[in-house]
Amino acid sequence: MTNTLTSCDIFCTVVDNYGDAAVCWRLARQLATEHAWRVRLWIDDPAPLAQLAPDSAVGPVEVRTWSDPWPAQTPTTDAADVVIEAFACELPPAYVEAMAARSCLPVWLNLEYLSAENWVAGCHGLPSPHPRLPLLKHFYFPGFEASTGGLLRESDYDARRAKFDEAAFRAEFGLPSRAPEEITISLFSYANPDLPDLIRAWTDSPRPIRVLRPGSTEESCTTGSLSLHSLPFLPQAGYDELLWACDLNFVRGEDSFVRAQWAARPFVWQIYPQAQDVHLEKLEAFLAIHPAGVALRPFWLAWNGAGPMDWPRFSDSLPALAEPMREWSRTLSSRPDLAAGLVQFCLQRLK
Ligand code: TRH
Q1: Which of 127, 147, 154, 219 is surrounded by the fewest CB atoms within 10 Å?
Q2: Is 254 a catalytic residue?
Q3: How confident is the model over 313-325, as pLDDT tens digits?
Q4: 157-333 in CATH: which number?
Q5: Cβ(214) – ligand 1 distance below 6 Å
Q6: What's the predicted TM-score (pTM) here?
């Protein structure tokens, strides 16, 4: 089997927000454009995708609505060479039967959530046999260590960044040029009870603070040192530009968290909240491996509801965070990206 002939079906259920669609689309697009795979993305709710990638209907991925019940088997729904179920979504039983009926069995992957916890490297790539059919499913874990599945990063990322024009970006959104000493901040967060305190601290800041809130419909306003601007929800490429245009990025969930690391600017992560504060263990696991983890920890815990917030102290630490952020990004980008690693993993098993 040659690489150019590889077909791939990615199945995505949108649980909430944007992350599920965001990760699946990014992976699908990279497999199609960088690895010449024929990719179909089966998604049960196309609405978030329309916002993340308004051009997703025109290729290079075939986007299909994952309807229930699954359509009867036809040539267009035959199982692909590589089948990826994102975040343990359950495949249609008829599709699984079609996988087992192939003469060359497909490579079946469960793409898992990102975590910096220690156990991830040990579980990455593990097989799980189907209880009844002659199929093996492999767990594919994104991660920060070389022994995990890595992180999604497009091969043209550096080239896009090199062309980025901050002044043009600011002009496009009606933002004035940078004031002396200004701290420009992007803010993408879940509802956060600590936000009013932070807004007060920004309002009283000795330095001008310009906060850009993508996807917000609030009126833009200026109070004290704080200028708050609502921006439209940007397509994924535009969101990268926003991160490059800022000195500090507040991100959340999974995919914006990864993009902030590629942007290599100081960032604050609001982790997706889970029952029994399990998410705080995941937050600590990431802080433990990041070169600036000790300096980031107090403010990050505060932003995740687990400590007192001290903006002035964090703001003073921003210049010292610049180099560790670059170092971290360099380390991660020296490893194979998730799509490239996944292609290798599959081609070894498709032989
Ligand atoms: O939207 P998220 O909170 O997504 C999630 C979901 O909660 C999901 O269920 C959970 O499993 C996962 O996180 C961990 O945050 P995330 O992951 O950062 O996804 C947001 C995407 O939206 C990301 O690709 C960046 C993109 N984005 C834009 O493209 N334009 C924008 O203007 C903004 C604000 C975000």
Answers
A1: 219
A2: yes
A3: 999 999 999 999 9
A4: 3.40.50.2000
A5: yes
A6: 0.97
Written as six digits, the tokens of 270 are 């609001």
Catalytic site residue 316? no
CB of 197 closer than 8 Å to CB of 226: no
Domain with CATH 3.40.50.2000 in the chain: 157-333
Residue of the CA atom closest to atom 25 of ligand 1: 256
**Can you spell out the DSSP letters for 117-170?**
-THHHHHTT-EEE-SSSS-EEEEE---SSTTS------TTHHHHHHT--HHHHH
Cα–Cα nearest to 63, from 75, 72, 53: 53
Q: How far is the CA of 324 from the centre of ligand 1 (A)?
A: 24
- CATH architecture of structural domain 3-150+336-350: 3-Layer(aba) Sandwich (3.40)
Q: Is the CB of 20 under 6 A from ligand 1?
A: yes
- In tens, the pLDDT along 86-123 reads 998 999 999 999 999 999 999 999 999 999 999 999 99
Distance 122 CA to ligand 1 centre (A): 27
